[in-house]
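Components:
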Amino acid sequence: MKHLIDILDLSAEEIDELIAVANDIMENPQYYQEKCRYKKLATLFFEPSTRTRLSFEAAMLELGGSVLGFSEAASSSAAKGESVSDTIAVVGGYADIIAMRHPKEGAPLVAAMKSSVPIINAGDGGHNHPTQTLTDLLTIKREKGYFDGLTIGFCGDLKFGRTVHSLIAAMSRYANIRYVLISPEELKVPSYVKADHIKSKHIPYTQTTSIDSVIEELDVLYMTRVQRERFFNEEDYLRLKDSYILTLDKLKNAKEDLCILHPLPRVNEIATAVDDDPRACYFKQARYGKYIRMALILKMLEVC
Ligand code: CP
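Structure:
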């Protein structure tokens, strides 16, 4: 049995296969509509979510399966003090596969060690979010057509933004990648992410606090929200929350084929006027999340 805890649990070839299946599902949805008949997905969300939980549930329903679960820790027995391990040991008897989000880094790994069914990490604290990365990769592949040679700008909260950490890990496997890391000093990419996935692979990167000075270089711009829920004090959050607001004016010098991504939810970091710009891909990205999760469920349940 295989779990998905970290994006690097999947080889680049396996990711290519998932992207191919997701594209095929978009083309031929009827072919897949009964593939998971009698299978059940449990979504155990100890932290809030709109896209990840609902796209997982929509994915399983569109494969003909069923879903069960909870959307907040308060409505589960975690509120009575039950451990993650015990919860997983029990839910493994009710479902064939589990997607789990938890505020504690490493919780899905602990769950996987105890689980009798495949576990999917649907986001663990400020650590990783591998299925968002699959969504991002599908979007980049569809929008740009390739991964090699891209210059990718990450902008915003690069410290707590788990989607950034997972996407850097994934993209660092491709050739001639370059990163532009745009953040306030306090919200830089953690040194372990840089050491493990950028420096160890000798990937060229620039760190800057200014988006204006680098926007013209980018092929992909990955905007992120400042992660209020990970801050220790509100004062710091309020000081940093509007560090970057992408506007049409700021895009004047950007490439015509720039691909603007955002894992969402957005707060203020992209002006709504940008939504109508053809370079804005973030709502498409959210839509693609369902298809790549359908492909992932099929793979993890070994349904052809
Ligand atoms: N991108 C993402 O993880 O969104 P949700 O928090 O709404 O699931």
